[in-house]
Amino acid sequence: MRITGLALLLLSCYGVAQAAPLASPSICASPAQPIREQGYVPINGIEQWITVTGAACGNPVILFIHGGPGNALSPYADAIYAGWERHYTLVQWDQRGAGMTYAKQRPAEDVPLTVEQMRDDGIAVARYIEQHLGRQKVILMGSSWGSILGVHMAKARPDLFHAYIGTAQVVNARDNETGMYREVMVLAQAAGDTTTVDKLTALGAPPWRDPRNFGILRRFDRKYEGLATDPPPRHWWQPAPFYATPQALADAEAADDYSYIQFIGLRGDGMFAKVDLPALGTRFDLPVFFIMGEADLLTSPAIARTYFDSITAPAKDFTLVKRAGHDPNQAVLNAQWTVLRDKVAPLLQ
Questions:
Q1: In this structure, what is the dihedral angle of CA atoms 254, 258, 261, 264, given to the nearest 10 degrees?
Q2: Who contacts 201 (Cβ-Cβ below 8 Å, separation ≥6)?
Q3: pLDDT by residue (tens digit) across 115-147?
Q4: Other Cβ atoms within 10 Å of 83 Cβ, number
Q5: Model-level pTM?
């Protein structure tokens, strides 16, 4: 990987690998070799930010596909997944238009993101990681927006992945959006929350043409999810020092704004409007595991369950997590760990 200034200092005690073509040999000299890298890798024509952390090269590899789009997980991964690196090699990828990738190469405002383009980026990242670490397959984990890309990647190249784990699984744009509006309205009416009811009524049910409406509904959604869920540890969402400089924070905010517009669209015609995962076909040629928060209003567990029940796969399992919503908390992490230990690990034997 090609490493920039401060990143080079951070990596000096572990050794640094330069960015290399996909045909390059593995950097892992032995299964016991630790690895900690971060830097830019050429992926489909642009430099994209990838971090790799693990106690031993011989451990299974997890490729995380972050949500948003735009909400890169790399600034928070060390805090959220502390301890996992003893058993897995953890790979974070800042997607096109997100995080450090956005900071390096800001897309022009008139250059759209597409699910297909980002799917192909994710597949290229998986191939790079497998060559870089000398592995034949990785475990694919996607959450929220990342669950859209995760399904697209799993359907397109199942041969690259041991299994797909979808958390806060999106299914269909209109079903998920309409379901969120309906459920928040029911909760607000039951609570006698006339302020929220009036504002939701003024919005009207989706679909919308005003890009602000989804964000307004999401604020009400978070309010009611917060009443039914346990919050995550506060330190999870404090960015690591490397990502907490004024410039890095400004870049992250700009990436979020850019990606939100790409996701929703200026007239409700963004990437999200076209999402219909069942239309891709319900046969999966790899094991599939869904983890859903019981109180998730944005990606309804009922909608996800209907989709899950329609799926055929070599193995599959559905986990419903109590006191959890759309955003991860400790209960969700515990469920992910349990699925990895009890469902995925036996597949790697």
A1: -100
A2: none
A3: 999 999 999 999 999 999 999 999 999 999 999
A4: 8
A5: 0.93
